Amino acid sequence: MLSLAPEKPLTTALSQPPVAAQQLLIDVQGVRKAFPGVVALDDVSFRLRAGSVHALMGENGAGKSTLMKILAGVYTPDQGVYRLHGREIALTSPLDALENGIAMIHQELNLMPFMSIAENIWIRREPLNRFGLIDHARMYQMTRELFAQLSIELDPQAKVASLSISSRQMVEIARAVSYNSDVLIMDEPTSALTEHEVAHLFRIVRMLREQGKGIIYITHKMNELFEIADEVSVFRDGHFIGCKQVEQLSHDEVIRMMVGREITEMFPKTIVPIGEVALEVSHLTLDGVFHDVSFSLRQGEILGVAGLIGSGRSNVAETLFGVSPASSGQIRINGQPVTIDSPRTAMQHGMAFLTEDRKDTGCFLSLSIQENMQISVLGGDNLQAGFVRQQALDAMCEAMSGTLRVKTPNLDERIENLSGGNQQKVLIGRWLLTNPKILILDEPTRGIDVGAKAEIHKLICKLAGQGVAVIMISSELPEVLGMSDRIMVMHEGRVTGIVDRADATQVSIMTLAAG
Amino acid sequence: MAISNTQALGKSPKPGAFRFKLPAEARIFMVLLGVALIFELLGWIFVGQSFIANKERLIVMILQVSVIGIIAVGVTQIIIMGGIDLSSGSVVALTAMVSASLAQTSDFARAVFPTLTDLPVIAPLAAGLLVGLVCGLINGTVIAKTAIPPFIATLGVMVTARGMAKWYTQGEPISMLSDNYAAIGAGINPVIIFLVTALVFHIILSYTRYGKYTYAIGANRAAARVAGINVNRHLILVYTVAGLLSGLAGVVTSARAVSGQAGMGMMYELDAIAAAVIGGTSLNGGLGKITGTVIGTLILGTMTSGFTFLRIDAYYQEIVKGIIIVVAVVADQYRQRNRRS
């Protein structure tokens, strides 16, 4: 973060060409938003001009979503000024934003599946007949007029549940337009669309631009940026990096703005002897999620996996571990082909999987640390005549939490009373007790403070030194670059490259991740 | 952050901390004592005698909730696992009918199965347990394989089993049962069966893999699967165990009444769920103890006895019972929220 200091005055001076106030739909200055433990946005400024498409770009966690949620009234900023049409406003809710002409098209679609298209669009504003009942005929007519204007061809009476994802997106857009909004916020609108549908979407976006609307367009895709956007604002680690006219930018310049951070953290990477091939994956496919993933992994090797959210990196891990078994492809462990259809079978083959989401798929929050750590080894020698040999397990877990330096007075505490880093250590301990040969770590240090992070990094290196084959998925480029022997990069469900440690740079990885 | 956490955990001798260190069961036991004391007080005021110092009354008090208690031991496990079972009362009726039909004496001309009379007592007992087990197996299998909510699956079995109990003898009650069979439910035997069942499952839940997996699935089903637990198989197992216990409850009910009737066990499922919930089992799963359920069962029994003792109308009993169940759940939610913040 210190590296930003010399850069900042430069970008602010360069990036904001003088604009006549009446042209500005949104003018946000000095916005700050903090959540417990993190500052999501710090001193961020953003301007949206009428009749323009303004792209927001940045890595995961850069602050795009937080800014967007502030603009759409989901969050209230801690500091800063929010001007709409030159007037200062304080939005209290998404509904409040909508009534002020700011509509957001969500990434997770927000339609009611068992109601008709028309009902979804005009909800809360249904036309009434003279008896005070809903006038369906008029509502359908209004919908048809709206669709004609946007050249959308859908039956207003059709149920949303029967529509494809792209049609639903069109309905969302039509709904936003129906509010006569001046500002439309689109969050990765093309993530579920085919090329043909993207073209249609872009036609609609251009039309809205010509009508003088301002469109905020969040995307990870470079080609879209150059095709549709007029301006782009780049964010990194909660800071505003710069705002430029797209025509003045090159592909590489955008990537450099996105990743331009120095690696300030030190990684304890130790080079260890690499052994035999432990895992070989060929043409692994999970229909509709990822395709044709092939790689191999050796004992003692750390394979980093990079990619944006939605690139399928976590799905590959889940499939390897049998959480969602593959539709096709082959997995070989120590040269033997294996079928992995459940986490149980994966464990029998010596695999362990630390999931991405501690709360959802890791911790048993209402149970003790002890119960959480021992759950995967309640068998074999640890059972005697059907009873769990609790004393032996207590000793094992005690020793493990000592090794991992879990900070707790005793293991009978509930795991939910621990900090995130300590919870993570308990879960790592759970898997280490199974003596894994192949360890899959999905975001092993997410949401963990710096000290605990370094300890976990050391531990991973130590395990690799003992011959464990490690797959480490991470959203943090420095972590991937610092820890991995090789890095596999994914984009939209496909492997776009596998890069050796020596050749990997932030720019090369980010370029592969952006497709 | 980690440091402040460690300080907040235990060790710091804050004044008043002792109150929160009590295990949940101890708190519930206080509630039981409180309820008993209220009746004791009211007893001296309105009836002129002691409520508690009456051995007969205490035995009857436990006796009348023993069958509910046996069911509650099974239901507690299901709720800990994050499920629910509405079928227990109907399963009691179906089991009572089937086992009674195999327990008839040959003195009776109109036996259900005239060729199957004077059987050794093991026959009706085994048949009853088997019926319960099959009902539980159906519950578990449907829930695991179709992934429909347990509420719906067990509601279906509830209605179907009640219908089968009526169809079994076209609604006729079954009587003239053997003395050996009747002995199962005689005297304080139901109390013994209840307490032994509770003890056995208390041990199983605390010290076996079965117990550990039950809590883990209830605490976080997705995490349990990733941790290598065969969640579906365990779901089926636990529902089957609960069915078996409902079957046992059906046998005890018919043996005590020395007859089988299709109307037996009406609403028992709700009393059993109430006993578990009052006893501190969380409907969110992952939390609960058999000991708590035993105390919860006794609280229900104390209330029934107490109202009878004070000669208060049965209607009021139900009204108050309903309120207490809701209060217990609200208290549970409040506890959970407090812990999180």
UniProtKB/TrEMBL annotation, chain A:
CDD domains: ABC_Carb_Monos_I, ABC_Carb_Monos_II. Transmembrane segments: none annotated. It catalyses: D-galactose(out) + ATP + H2O = D-galactose(in) + ADP + phosphate + H(+). Residues 26-262, 272-511 form the ABC transporter domain. One of its GO terms (cellular component) is plasma membrane. It is found in: Cell inner membrane; Cell membrane. Its EC number is 7.5.2.11. It is a peripheral membrane protein. GO terms for molecular function: ABC-type carbohydrate transporter activity; ATP binding; ATP hydrolysis activity. Keywords: ATP-binding, Cell inner membrane, Cell membrane, Membrane, Nucleotide-binding, Repeat, Sugar transport, Translocase, Transport. GO terms for biological process: monosaccharide transmembrane transport. Signal peptide: none annotated. PANTHER family: CARBOHYDRATE TRANSPORT ATP-BINDING PROTEIN MG119-RELATED, GALACTOSE_METHYL GALACTOSIDE IMPORT ATP-BINDING PROTEIN MGLA. Belongs to the ABC transporter superfamily. Part of an ABC transporter complex involved in carbohydrate import. Could be involved in ribose, galactose and/or methyl galactoside import. Responsible for energy coupling to the transport system. This is Ribose/galactose/methyl galactoside import ATP-binding protein. It comes from Aquitalea palustris.
TrEMBL record, chain B:
Keywords: Cell inner membrane, Cell membrane, Membrane, Transmembrane, Transmembrane helix, Transport. GO terms for cellular component: plasma membrane. It is found in: Cell membrane. Its main location: membrane. The chain crosses the membrane at residues 28-47, 59-80, 121-144, 151-169, 181-205, 235-258. GO terms for molecular function: transmembrane transporter activity. This is ABC transporter permease.
